[in-house]
Write a structure and sequence with these properties.
Radius of gyration: 21 Å
Shape: globular
Order of helices and strands: HHHHHHHHHHHHHHHHHHHH
Number of strands: 0
Strand content: under 5%
Number of helices: 20
Structural class: mainly alpha
Largest sheet: none
């Protein structure tokens, strides 16, 4: 729909004080844009509920709750002070969810109607539209090799460390992917690939985001102390910090060259998300499926396909389409105008950082 020029306006969430809040975010014009977003995504949610066999009435009843909580988290994250602390919308959403689930007794009909897993998978598919191969190639052969070596070595080291500390298998897989590829998105994709526990996923997301804050602040200071060049600093930041928003913010503290290289390195790692999710899903099927315990009943290709997370194919397909089938100008326009609810928080943060000129 976006490719045929159906582009909704992007809501404003950035504000500094109460005056900004009411004149920009809560202005009649911006509320109208949010209403358009609500109707559009409600239609998508209804289609998703129908295709997945959920009760349509129940799904549409619970959807406004998810939408309002998301808007509330985005408004809080849009505050300049909160942005300065690198507290993204995802950590605020996570906190709200923990508060609600632990202190409020939600009715059963509401719990049953929430299709948040579906929204996450749609968001991951759309995340593929931001992975443009021409941008990745700008890093050059050495840059791509660095990204590949960093992802593989860090993934294996994290996996080995978790095993030594006797961390359970699900959490181990999520942590390894999160710290080696692209943080929150990688953790969510891995959780979907192995059908992981949502509570364990929440722990991993919290750890990634909380760790990114001191890294974002202190790594540029360390690089300056040791007199690293901007190019070396940018490669270090992009390869070490797990969230793209924190990479951009940290690179900006160093300089333009560091910002450019750190972003390219991080995007080079991000492109491996689809490949990693595919490999993890196949590994998990063969090692954790009950049939795998019997050597004579190893999972067949049919079993792998049934357990395989189909959103991975959507992610890869979206990336290939936006990289090779449409013009760069169209891809750039559509990516900027994507529906706010279906954007991953890190990409939403990136856009707002750029808008604010940070």
């Amino acid at each position: 729909m976006s490719l045929i020029s159906f582009l909704l306006s992007v809501p404003v969430f950035g504000w500094k004080d109460s005056s900004d809040l009411f004149s920009k975010v809560l202005s009649p014009q911006n509320l109208l844009v949010l209403a358009e977003q609500f109707v559009f995504v409600l239609i998508i949610a209804a289609l998703g509920a129908s295709f997945t066999g959920k009760n349509l009435r129940s799904a549409l009843t619970g959807f406004p709750v998810v939408f309002l909580l998301t808007i509330f988290a985005l408004v809080l994250a849009g505050n300049s002070t909160v942005k300065g602390l690198n507290l993204e919308a995802v950590i605020i959403s996570l906190s709200l969810g923990l508060i609600i689930s632990n202190f409020l007794n939600l009715p059963k009909w509401l719990r049953a109607s929430l299709s948040t897993g579906l929204f996450v998978k749609i968001g991951l598919v759309l995340l593929g539209t931001t992975i443009i191969f021409s941008d990745i190639l700008k890093a050059g052969s050495l840059g791509l090799m660095q990204s590949l070596v960093v992802v593989i070595s860090v993934w294996y080291f994290a996996f080995w460390t978790c095993k030594k500390l006797k961390v359970d298998d699900e959490t181990t897989m999520m942590i390894s992917s999160a710290v080696s590829i692209c943080g929150v998105s990688a953790a969510i994709a891995t959780s979907g690939a192995i059908k992981g526990d949502s509570k364990k996923l929440s722990y991993v997301i919290s750890m990634v985001l909380i760790t990114a804050i001191p890294m974002m602040i202190f790594m540029p200071i360390i690089a300056h102390y040791f007199h690293f060049s901007q190019e070396v600093t940018g490669a270090w930041l992009g390869g070490s910090i797990d969230t793209t928003g924190a990479v951009v913010a940290s690179g900006s503290l160093v300089g333009e060259a560091a910002l450019k290289i750190s972003t390219i390195v991080k995007f080079s790692q991000n492109v491996l998300l689809g490949v990693a999710a595919f490999a993890i899903s196949v590994y998990w099927t063969y090692t954790k499926n009950p049939a795998a315990q019997n050597a004579e009943q190893k999972p067949t290709l049919k079993v792998i396909w049934e357990r395989f997370p189909k959103f991975v194919l959507g992610f890869i397909g979206a990336s290939l389409a936006f990289s090779f089938l449409i013009s760069p100008e169209t891809a750039k326009t559509v990516s900027k105008k994507k529906t706010m609810l279906l954007l991953s928080p890190k990409n939403w943060c990136l856009q707002n950082l750029n808008k604010e000129g940070v």
